[in-house]
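ok so heres the complex, two chains, lmk if somethin looks off
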Amino acid sequence: MNCAEYKELLAAYIEGLLDETEKRSVAQHLKDCAVCRAELKETSNLCSRLVNNGKNLAQTNLEDVVLERIIREQNSRLKAASKIGASLNIRRTIMKSPITKLAAAAVIVIGAFLAIQHFGGSMDGASAAWADVRAAFLAQSWVHLKYDSGREQWISLEDGKFYYKNEDGRKVFVDRVSNIRLIYSPDLGEHISQNRPAVYLGGVIPPWQPKTAWEIVVGNLEEMTGQVVRDTEVQKEIERLDNMELVRFDVYHYDAIGRRLLVRQLWANPETRLPVRIWERLQLAEREEQKREFVTGEFDFPASGPSSIYELGVNEDLPIVKEYDRIPEPSIAEVIRAGSAGLGRFPDRYRSLTWSIEGYGCTIDVVYRNGEKIHHNRYFSLVGQPDYSLKTPASAEDVLQWTQTQVPVSIAVFDGRRSYTRTNPHPSPSFAGHPEPTVRVLKEKSVYTSSEPHNELWPYASIDAGGSFGWIDDKPEELSDYVGLRSGDRGDTRRDFYIDPEHDHICVRWIWWKERAGKWEKQREYECSDFVQLPQGQWYPSKRVLSMYPDATRGTDGSRVDSNIDIKVLEENECPADTFNGEKLLEGAKVESY
Amino acid sequence: MSETDQYYVERCLDGHPDDFRYLVRRYQGVLLAHLAGKLGSKDKAEEAAQESLVRAYFKMDSLEKPDSFFSWLLGIADRVAKEHQRQEQICRQREVIHSFSQAAPQPEFSQDYALESAIAELPEAYQRVILLRYYGHHSCNQIAQRLDMPLGTVTKTLSRAYSMLRESLQQQHNESCEVQK
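and the predicted structre for the whole thing:
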């Protein structure tokens, strides 16, 4: 090694980043070369000087002072922008400076700051911060909201008692303190049903969400803590409405794929600081049901509100029917735990193939699961398939081979954070709902993955309302070997679960009952049989039958679908390449996301 | 704190200004060293570093490549330092005019930041590596990631930077000896 080579390696040598051979040749060179030895000493001195200086400067922390300066600067920019808006009256001040986005986002951060700086000061709109509106709201006794959809609601700010009535005649009272909900709905029949919004196993009542009247009406924005709530942003503007100058807060939400959506607007009176109007974008289900995109509500703050559900116009003679009666016995909890344990023992990596190619439901589901929460599902339909060449009985190999040549009707990928579902046009024209592929992106919390053994074989174990289970007293003869649990959490429906302790507590019969004219009738029934054991000892049924029973009230006939199940346990990385590539699904398709 | 600059820049632009905190934490040491080297005093460096960070925050949406935040920030700091120097010069000239009968005050020369001013004189590539290593407290591997270069290039750059720094310090030393003579 010569001096030039050594010089290049100097830093790596000091940092200890050389391999053994290099280290040895550097040491040898240093031994031989006095110049380089002297230089190494000087460099070491230099390095310790650098380390010391670095340490000294690290004692200065600029974080707080910089953030404070940013807030101050933001504040004065916002004020300047709002003042221009106030003088222009009807024209909205949209803060089109390069800082628009940041300025808007910072409103939440500076909310508390503004409250301290300006509350009680000048009464111009610019100084009415989100936090002020919240504070004024919380100082009331009741809030009453009347929406243009016909919905009307009253919430007590003292104890959270919550009443509402909808245009469809539904009337509801919720008491958070005693965890009771009373519901009257014309559809449910002539009674008021009483349930507990949530009870966990062992009678534990979970914390309420949303927690406060403010959260119910406006949303869960924890602006008082000075924290920006993830995925949400508030922007403030001045607007003249009905000849009155109001402050408008626009609440934006970032959806699953990062699009910025205006979800809510709140108008407040800058003098009283109280909200006067709210505009809300409806959830997808509400949009479809109500055939409208958004609703507008008008606020008022009465001194008192309804004192019972009857004041909303419910007939006082109607009986209250309790939909819960017992807390699970310890032995019932035991069964549910055993089921959860069976579910927990099931392999984490597998390919599951479910096919039914007889009768009406001709479908194939190929599901890959790769560890916790990573899941890929392909669904094929055989109805109307031009080259449908699969004939029963088909082996799992035949089916898999066939799927290689087909376009799936839907593909779903869940990668642990989001679920992507791509729906392709159905091969049969009579089923073609979507002429072009659509993609949906769902956030983790709203993901439901069906057609997986995980979700299908232990249905009773994933129901957290354990309090609604009881024993089945009238077990039929042929099912007497199984543990029978009955869930009756709805007035006129109930579900029976027959559980097989011999096979990992899998539910071998799952029966849905419906009460019609005072008589309990079977609606549908799943039956598992032909148990197969996996190499690690877990069981699964290789046959599953779904029976639908005729329903005279709906005029439907009965039907029966026989499914075959084949499960193969996979090693890590044994899943097909690209299986878990959700991004790929997004390419070139129409996207709707939540 | 282990997220990339790009992540925090995008978080800020997406309306989470509080995440700017992490970028401040990451680069305050580097900025202070860089500015102390240019301005010759810690107080001035602190003031200029604050100014640079606040400016960077409000200009973030003009940052074209969010992964080059660090270089961009140093660029802003350079401009701020220049402005401060110019202001100082103007002040000093005014003082000179006010007190024309007295001797003009000597521009302060701070031996404390001789090292940092030598760093500030290095070509950019060398400067960045030294700043990140000693004032940003990055390991060589982290520097390689941050600047997107092979580890070998990082250590070679460091080696050359050491040698340049030693030379420049030696020169400073010689000059100050001559002044004293």
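quick notes: Chain A touches chain B through 46 residues (CB under 8 Å). thats all i got rn
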